[in-house]
Amino acid sequence: MTTSVVVTGIGVTAPNGLGTDAFWAATRAGESGIGPVKRFDATGYPAKLAGEVPGFEATDHLPSRLIPQTDHMTRLALVAADWALADAGVALDQWQQFDMGVITASSSGGFEFGQNELQKLWAKGGQYVSAYQSFAWFYAVNTGQISIRNGMQGPSGVVVSDQAGGLDALAQARRQIRKGTRLIVSGGVDGSICPWGWIAQVAAGRLTGSEDPDKAYRPFAADADGYVPGEGGALLILEDAESARERGARVYGEIAGYAATFDPKPGSGREPGLKRAIEAALADAGVTAADIDVVFADAAAVPDLDRAEAEAIGAVFGPRGVPVTAPKTMTGRLYSGAASLDTAAALLSIRDGVIPPTTNVAPAPEYDLDLVVDGPRTAPVATALVLARGYGGFNSAMVVRKAAK
Questions:
Q1: Could you tell me the CA-to-CA distances from 314 to 257, 278, 344 in Å, in that order?
Q2: Where would I find the Ketosynthase family 3 (KS3) domain in this sequence (predicted)?
Q3: pLDDT of the residue at 136
Q4: pTM of the model
Q5: Residue (of 175, 157, 337, 180) closest to 260 by Cα position
């Protein structure tokens, strides 16, 4: 169970960049993809901003037969998987089908597809509902469609743990590779920017009501009042390190450590579980707090949650003890896609020796964080910690580091 698991490919569909290079260039430069909702008329809703993937035309990337059977979210995922495999230099005809699997995360499934079919049901009748509704809405649909498209018949699955899911899926992929699978496509791509999905998100009470994209999503700020939702995410190619070396693959870094915890019952008086997750992930990676060069924060922009995260980081690393960043202020929180996109950003930080900024935030002194703001910070990055939390008390932490030569 000590097999080294590395990342050899990255595919990104993000609100501030379609493709890994576009996303990373925008993220380093502090360019946001947040703006007024365009996918539907949000005039009557209390939240009116979102991070939407720009310039995405599914027909430019996918065969026409896939369009009527897939939700927008799944189209984004299929394209991200294609790009990740190409980035990893994977020639599918040279791989055994049972050596490759797919493990993705999902928080809501194909909400937009489901909404459209329900509208047909009530307006026209059951005979007008697409047969594809039987699976296009489902949480596991991204895994299934990627598997079918690429002939991947190895261990596969879906993880549903809300915004912690992107890390949890990568961890499950790591486990499967340690059990002998050579390659897993993993991560999360999510999106439910439609009236049905919007109502579900608004009901949770954590969305900002701001209509100014430059002031809307401000984690760790004194005036934080909620987050901006978004769509997209990142899929990564995970491989056994030895197998990757044998085929001459370029390696972004190693998935070195992971842990997950649950928060205690509200009112119990016990501390949130994030600190335990951080400590366990460091232990799993065999590193100490002093070895971490940057923390990619969950960054809820909800005061109580920001305080809990800041306290967990401070307890492990000390006051202002490690650079902290939240580049998701440029994309919105992408639900199950958020943490895998942060993991991709962490690996790119390791590659380029630069920490991307947290935009539009004046950090509140009481949090006592060394928050990277105003612009990117040049620094050697060998090891990074990525944090993620989901509704209901999910906490996940993952350590990624520069791979051994």
A1: 20, 11, 24
A2: 2-402
A3: 86
A4: 0.97
A5: 175
